[in-house]
Amino acid sequence: MQDRSADIGFARLDLSRGSRTGFPETIYCAGKTKEQLLTILQKFEAEKIAVMGTHCSPEQFEFVRNAGVSAAYDPVSRIISASPEAHPRLPGSLAVCTGGTADLPVAEEAVRTAEFFGAEVTRFYDVGIAGLHRLLSRIEDIRQADVIIALAGMEGALPGVIAGLVSAPVIAVPTSVGYGASLQGLTPLLTMLSSCAEGISVVNIDNGFGAAVQACRILKLMEKNK
Amino acid sequence: MQDRSADIGFARLDLSRGSRTGFPETIYCAGKTKEQLLTILQKFEAEKIAVMGTHCSPEQFEFVRNAGVSAAYDPVSRIISASPEAHPRLPGSLAVCTGGTADLPVAEEAVRTAEFFGAEVTRFYDVGIAGLHRLLSRIEDIRQADVIIALAGMEGALPGVIAGLVSAPVIAVPTSVGYGASLQGLTPLLTMLSSCAEGISVVNIDNGFGAAVQACRILKLMEKNK
Amino acid sequence: MQDRSADIGFARLDLSRGSRTGFPETIYCAGKTKEQLLTILQKFEAEKIAVMGTHCSPEQFEFVRNAGVSAAYDPVSRIISASPEAHPRLPGSLAVCTGGTADLPVAEEAVRTAEFFGAEVTRFYDVGIAGLHRLLSRIEDIRQADVIIALAGMEGALPGVIAGLVSAPVIAVPTSVGYGASLQGLTPLLTMLSSCAEGISVVNIDNGFGAAVQACRILKLMEKNK
Amino acid sequence: MQDRSADIGFARLDLSRGSRTGFPETIYCAGKTKEQLLTILQKFEAEKIAVMGTHCSPEQFEFVRNAGVSAAYDPVSRIISASPEAHPRLPGSLAVCTGGTADLPVAEEAVRTAEFFGAEVTRFYDVGIAGLHRLLSRIEDIRQADVIIALAGMEGALPGVIAGLVSAPVIAVPTSVGYGASLQGLTPLLTMLSSCAEGISVVNIDNGFGAAVQACRILKLMEKNK
Amino acid sequence: MQDRSADIGFARLDLSRGSRTGFPETIYCAGKTKEQLLTILQKFEAEKIAVMGTHCSPEQFEFVRNAGVSAAYDPVSRIISASPEAHPRLPGSLAVCTGGTADLPVAEEAVRTAEFFGAEVTRFYDVGIAGLHRLLSRIEDIRQADVIIALAGMEGALPGVIAGLVSAPVIAVPTSVGYGASLQGLTPLLTMLSSCAEGISVVNIDNGFGAAVQACRILKLMEKNK
Amino acid sequence: MQDRSADIGFARLDLSRGSRTGFPETIYCAGKTKEQLLTILQKFEAEKIAVMGTHCSPEQFEFVRNAGVSAAYDPVSRIISASPEAHPRLPGSLAVCTGGTADLPVAEEAVRTAEFFGAEVTRFYDVGIAGLHRLLSRIEDIRQADVIIALAGMEGALPGVIAGLVSAPVIAVPTSVGYGASLQGLTPLLTMLSSCAEGISVVNIDNGFGAAVQACRILKLMEKNK
Amino acid sequence: MQDRSADIGFARLDLSRGSRTGFPETIYCAGKTKEQLLTILQKFEAEKIAVMGTHCSPEQFEFVRNAGVSAAYDPVSRIISASPEAHPRLPGSLAVCTGGTADLPVAEEAVRTAEFFGAEVTRFYDVGIAGLHRLLSRIEDIRQADVIIALAGMEGALPGVIAGLVSAPVIAVPTSVGYGASLQGLTPLLTMLSSCAEGISVVNIDNGFGAAVQACRILKLMEKNK
Amino acid sequence: MQDRSADIGFARLDLSRGSRTGFPETIYCAGKTKEQLLTILQKFEAEKIAVMGTHCSPEQFEFVRNAGVSAAYDPVSRIISASPEAHPRLPGSLAVCTGGTADLPVAEEAVRTAEFFGAEVTRFYDVGIAGLHRLLSRIEDIRQADVIIALAGMEGALPGVIAGLVSAPVIAVPTSVGYGASLQGLTPLLTMLSSCAEGISVVNIDNGFGAAVQACRILKLMEKNK
To answer: Under an 8 A CB cutoff, do H225 and G223 touch?
Structure first.
């Protein structure tokens, strides 16, 4: 194994993920102190490695910006991107569909991540199944996408319904939207896993980031036979 | 309280439920010995009270029939009805919809119970959402019903989708069909409770009987303003 | 499908639910920003469509009122109703029963919703089963109702007891009142689903709104045979 | 500590529990081989110590009887009592109430244990709350008891209702009767623990034995002030 | 049923519990507004009925005191007692044992309630099983009690160990003390229910109050044979 | 919607899934009677539509074969394929990796399904992480695949470890292999969803079939840019 | 990594674990077919590598013995050992303590495994805490051990009590002995993890094998400073 | 039993744990008032007994320091040590490994505790399995340790991977790092318990302290054969 990593005491930075996986480096900002995040971003800046971070609080962003790190920040998705020049364009296209408005922050995490990784993304928001015509009126457009990310909270039925209507792979993202029996997202998670539709696989609750990376890995396959 | 009951040692039979609730007496056969079931049915026979039992095993039925009780038995729904002359006709109509073929025993428990109570029932089987056109091609007929019972296992999304397409009250029945993350019916149960659609209320897992009684109580209201 | 919807970017408003289901449009305010809620309410105002919202925080209400939206707000039920002229009167009557005083906010959500939808509602509060005479002294009045909503937290036994004493359909609402083994409402939810009483169906924890809509769908059936 | 025990290899028999706690020795037969059970019973027989065993299978009983142990067996409660001459009479009286007929085996475990320990027991079976008049018609008799054991499966509401109607301590026993949302007895267990009624404490699911011992410890207190 | 209750709109006060159960009236203060609590306490004051409330916040207490209600308040147990003259003395004695110091608020809820109900209480605090000699050095004193309340969080083993060492009934109270696998008290709850010791029954997590009432019901039995 | 379906009473067969999704029709055999399965297979045979079924018991297979249906059966994966001539070849290649030998039936379900759908599959069995060199010695071969299905029971760590070592999308399949804390597959399911590795999405417990369909949908994308 | 493994199709055998970890190779027999087990054992026999297998059914053993494999079998622990000449003697001593007789099969799995690995083991069976004198009368002998394995089902309190009485490390094994609230061993598992005693770590439910290996790894450390 | 304890009202201090277990006294500060903590520390100071406390808030520390107690405090691990002169040196060495940076507070709790108890500790931070080369590049150093503590949140796979690569005993610590399906640490807890690797035992979620004490008990064994 010739992979490089940098030991900065509290962390060992993976400096070769880009060459190993073909995608930029990413950081999970939650649970890191502001000082730790700063040190990490400065290290990548020095190495000229593009990097983005999820679950970044406004306080964390302000701290690293004030310390001179050059980074962009989107308060809805809570994504910080320390090297805004995006990744080379990926082939194909990605659709991101949500059940309701409250799923928007997680959806934007998916959209921004995929765009940072180089994907072309179209948003289809608030097409939940309680009013099926909202979905059906847009389904032809959704069918144009090569990969689909579908997010839903509460009962989480949207990804299964979409998967039955398209032939593209669907990445399902349960969200913690809802209350009571939706169990902070466990219910839509279980729903999506139990779906009797084909062509659906699932990521963690509220994990828009993970869905986007998976979608980009899939899109990247299309390069192969170009 | 002027309600009558009969003490037969291991049980106190409710002999006035018919007059109190307007519906026939019912028995939960599981957990009762064959001898206990026989004693109960004979008592009702003697009192000339119509009665049906759910969760009746073929062995239980054979035992009571051999002992001379006059009763009908449906092996799919596992319903025994000791007085097959049905209840007076209820107004309105009931639709019973299932997501898949494996939900059939629970669906038949609902259908047979509702028919025993006097309802007019139409079956809409295997209209699950994995192939949405199966549901959409029948939705106009389903909309004719005054009350809808919708059953589904696995991810349990059918009742919520139907509730968003109709204006009738939907009684949702989660079934234990599925495996793994469907958790013996807990997942469709939680799904149905978390549905963002309006006009849906839920009964216990595999409780086709309970859904039918609730549907009949609702249909009976329509008598009032005749 | 000829249903109309309005795309406002983060949401697709359902503009034809009224004509499709016979009831006013409703909004789930939690998880929406103040600005999003404002945009939605203004859109409905412009379309002259009556609308109510649940889970509306005082801050959300203040924001939309200050922005000129004409709406009423009830801080107990947290319901905002942007078009206070109520729906046409529904036939029949609805009883709303609670186990204890702490269930009051959820009960009021049910009451206010049903009244907005046009139902005639009577309150029966604090008739929980720990002191059964409180329920028994009122049961004759409760029996007059065509539909009953019964709410309870803690052990959640009230709806089952009522369902055994009446012939009307009972919509059960578990509440998150309690601590420890009541598991934020999961225990009364499971209790109500497991009830051996007949004529009971259940909605999500604290979902007074959903119970009310279901009750109104049922009451609306009584119009049919007028 | 001067307590005596006998080491028989796979087990250490407690030979002084009788003098320490005032009650006969008891054995949990499940998980023991027939040979182990025989050895234990023979040891107690040799020590002339009265002993009873719960969860004893018919096969276990047959084996030890064939091996010459003198013991009685009740197939409903699955209790073996190797020394049928009962314990000295306890003061006061015990009521054992069940919600339904299917609770009978657990109820009989409680009754037989309490009788073996010397208590006077009255049975009140099938007084569940789905038909409240069955309970109310017997409540005056139940109030005569000094201690009450109340068993219920499904939603498990009976003990709480009784506790609100009497002043005696109520020992609640959830049973595994039911299906789906009753979760093999977990739901009635949680219900009983969450009861807003006073004067109720709970034992394990299907633990009629434990309830009886607790009841007998309580009854024994009445001896003190004689 | 000749029980009296007072309808004050949001609640129906049980005015005859004292004569029915032999104990003072009690209130669960959580989930009630300050105004509701005041109204209730004033009503009982006017009826000259002794009353105590649990889960009373300092803010609630201050409000009702400022409004002129004469009541005592203990900030550790959070008990308000609006009529401090205690109930007539109960026979026998009660021991309250805790596993650790952090169980103290729940233990004091039990102690204060039992004292308000007239019981003589001895505290045995911090006798948890991690250092068994702390328990064994006090066990002879604990054995003098007629009823024992044992509280423990974390693994919750204390009540079972005590029950094996005494002949009095043990009321077990799981507390929410602990973290991680103790699951906010669910683990000690399950532990206590699963105890293989005899003579133990369990109340809800952190329910010192319920344990005390059950203990007092038991102690009251000793009056009978005086 | 121009989709065709055939109503055969207990089921509505989807006759246009092939043209809609580009893949053969599939059946979930569990929960269907032998007669129902036969009717379905005969219908597809008559329509000359290729079909395969999962969870097919040996008894079901024997019954339909004896009735004259021409179908192949693999007892390890329990897959019946009624039209063994496979689908047109898909581009790219699929690796199927298992943690241990006991995962083999689920792995074979994935392999057989993917092969039926036209994929080229390589097996990498028993490369679990308890002996990491088993995985590391094969990782270069695994990296050749365009899509990877990774199965594991017990702690379920394999897919996450692989996802960190490759750039292809990984479809993770938790299996019910294990005991105790692996909770019939729930633990590996949660593990895979919580993985901090990127490029992993998850299907239901033991759902080798679903993983294969998702993998084939992904592989099919590679056709696009040929 | 110079580790050797043998690819036998359905499995990759780890042939260097002995030299890597200092302990014999072990097999988890459950989920393997008889033929697979035979192939594995024959491979190790050919390599002259000592091996033992857990969860071996009598049928599996009979099959491999009939096929000529030379192996011993213990039906209580269900351990097969294909090379009965034990491992070199480990330093120190191990105590294996059980709460009750029903824990014996798991305890024997621990004892037999540790003995196969070369440890000196003493059994302390049935010293559960319901009768504390049974434990206290043996505690001085238990204190002589360098490592202690403590097993318990039901409430699982034994390991914590022992850990508070000794200075040796305690490996806790929850067993699935019990019913109802013991949740097939989950309750003792959670109890042991939540123990407030120090010096305790936990393995999976019924995992006597894992506890023994961990104990032997610890004992092996004592060799170092000889 | 000649163990000494001091009764200070709300607690019984164990004054002989040092001589009984060979390690310093420790306190769980959470759930204790500032005044209680002060009293305890002053008592130990007066008895000249070394003591450390976990879960100590900055406010608690400030209070006891201002009251004149001489104690050190580490804000990352939240450990207070009232007698900083450490315990006599333990033989051998301990490695503490973390999956990610967010595990640092729990890791430091383990490190600081072990150092206070006299162990030599080496930190291996951020060697999680998502980038396996980070672990593999350090594994030779980790192999030098006599005991290993491995911490991980999210999917919790690190300890199992390490246990398969070393021959030392591994103490696994699940952390509450993660979101959604990691269930506040329950998922890594279950993962570690289900690990198919050998030589791993587990402590409570976030219990760095417990892991350190167990590690020190093990290291202390190495003294024996010096």
So the answer is: yes
Q: pLDDT tens for residues G76-104?
A: 999 999 875 656 899 999 999 999 999 99
Residue H18's pLDDT band (boundaries 50, 70, 90)? confident
Q: Contact G16/G6 with Cβ under 8 angstroms? A: no
> What are F176-204's pLDDT values in tens digits?
999 999 999 999 999 999 998 999 999 99
Q: H or E stretch including D148?
A: strand D147-152
Task: Give chain H's length.
Answer: 226
Q: How far apart are CA B14 and CA D180, in angstroms?
A: 25
Q: Give the residue-averaged pLDDT of F8-35.
A: 84
Task: Look at the alpha carbons of A202, A207, A210, A215 in this order and tell me if their dihedral is positive or negative.
Answer: positive
Give, as one character, the DSSP assignment of residue A83: S
Distance to chain H for E180, nearest Cα, Å: 5
**H152: Cβ–Cβ under 8 A, 6 or more apart, which residues?**
H98, H99, H100, H103, H128, H158, H159, H172, H173, H174, H175, H188, H192
Q: Give me the domains of chain G, ranges plus CATH numbers.
A: 5-82 (no CATH), 94-224 (3.40.50.1970)
Q: Rounded to whole angstroms, how far apart are CA atoms C19 and C23?
A: 8
Residue A206: list chain H partners with CB under 8 A: 179-180
- From F126, F136, F177, residue closest to G11, measured CB to CB: F126
Provide, as residue numbers in chain G, all residues whose Cβ is less than 8 Å from the Cβ of D14: 131, 134
Strand-pairing partners, residue E6, are E13
Q: Do E101 and H176 touch (CB under 8 A)?
A: no
Backbone angles phi and psi of F119, in degrees to 5: -85, 155
Is C100's Cβ below 8 Å from some Cβ in E?
yes
CB-side neighbour CA atoms (13 Å) of D152: 32
* CA torsion through residues E203, E207, E208, E214, sign: negative
Q: Is G25 exposed, middle or buried (0-12, 13-18, 19+ CB in 10 A)?
A: buried
State how far the alpha carbon of E45 is from the alpha carbons of E80, E148, G33, in Å.
13, 33, 76
Q: Give me the helices (H) in A58-207, please.
A: 58-66, 104-116, 132-136, 139-142, 158-163, 186-193
Phi-psi region of B212 (alpha: psi -120 to 50; beta: other; left: phi over 0): alpha
Reported ipTM: 0.94
Chain A residues in contact with B161 by the CB 8 A cut-off are 129, 132, 157, 161
Burial class (CB in 10 A: 0-12, 13-18, 19+), C63: middle
- Say whether pLDDT at F2 is over 60: no
Residue F226 contacts A, CB cutoff 8 Å: yes
Kindly report the number of other CB atoms within 10 A of residue E89's CB atom. 10
Q: Which residues of H45-69 are buried (b: 16+ CB within 10 A; e: fewer)?
A: beeebbbbbbbbeeebbebbbeeeb
* C35 close contact with A: CB closer than 8 A: no
Are residues D102 and B31, on separate chains, in Cβ contact within 8 Å?
yes
CB of D91 less than 8 A from some CB of C:
no
Tell me how far apart the alpha carbons of residues G165 and D2 are, in angstroms, rounded to a whole number: 20
Q: Give the residue from F17, E191, A123, E35 showing the smallest Cα distance to G188.
A: E191
| Alpha-carbon gap: E144 to the closest alpha carbon of chain C (Å) | 31
A and D touch per CB criterion (3+ pairs under 8 A): no
Is there a contact between H175 and H151 (Cβ–Cβ < 8 Å)?
yes
Which residues lie below 8 Å from residue A108, measured CB to CB, with a gap of 6+?
Answer: A74, A76, A77, A208
Interhelix angle for F208-224 vs A208-224, to 10°? 50
G15 has a pLDDT exceeding 90: no
Q: What is the CA radius of gyration of chain E?
A: 18
Q: What is the DSSP string of G100-153?
A: SGGGHHHHHHHHHHHHHTT--EEEE-S--GGGHHHHHTTHHHHHT-SEEEEEE-
End-to-end CA distance of chain E: 30
Strand order in the sheet with H51-54: H25-28, H51-54, H79-81, H72-74
Instruction: Report which residue type is found at A47.
Output: E
